[in-house]
Amino acid sequence: METRGQIKQRLKAEGQWQEFVQLRNLFKAEELEPREALQAALVELEVLFGQDESYYQSCSSGAARSAVSSGAAGRLPAPGGGPR
After folding, report:
1. Is residue 8 part of a domain?
2. Per the domain annotation, does 19 fall within a domain?
3. Residue span of the structural domain in which 66 resides
4. Which of 33, 36, 38, 63 is most exposed, with the fewest beta carbons within 10 Å of its own?
5. Is the pTM of this model over 0.85?
């Protein structure tokens, strides 16, 4: 399993860090614990960018999966701040 530092490094290299931070903050605002918010944001990135689903499923809690099913991606601003 990746450490937080490894996740950050990988997402920056893939150009997905800003989206991840925005998603994580949305999930935190929905009162998920920080760890669950991180996991939910990773799952949501898989939905948005098509990452390997098995990795994200293995690290996601039930609360994180539930939060993702609520559709946070629809609330994520488009790159550049414009409408999605």
Report:
1. yes
2. yes
3. 4-74
4. 33
5. no
